[in-house]
Write a structure and sequence with these properties.
Elements (H helix, E strand, L loop, with lengths): L5 E6 L8 H9 L8 E5 L2 H9 L4 E5 L1
Antiparallel strand pairs: 1-2, 1-3
Length: 62
């Protein structure tokens, strides 16, 4: 069975002063503080959250 693709997501802009739904997407990706990097599975759900807050994060494929 093939291993699912992974994405490295880094928070590069602050959550402060953002829409509540955008803060929720950042939290849903597992990001808590600036310049924190997490690895998430490349799923449609995670892609949707990444697309919504793309102006706040940096993404690279692993």
């Amino acid at each position: 069975m093939a291993k699912p693709k992974q994405l490295k997501v880094t928070l590069v802009r602050s959550r402060h002063g953002r829409l509540k739904s955008h803060k929720a997407c950042v939290a849903g990706l597992g990001l808590r503080r600036m310049h924190q990097t997490v690895t998430v599975a490349d799923t449609p759900e995670n892609r949707g959250m990444i697309n919504r807050v793309s102006y706040m994060i940096a993404v690279e494929e692993v």
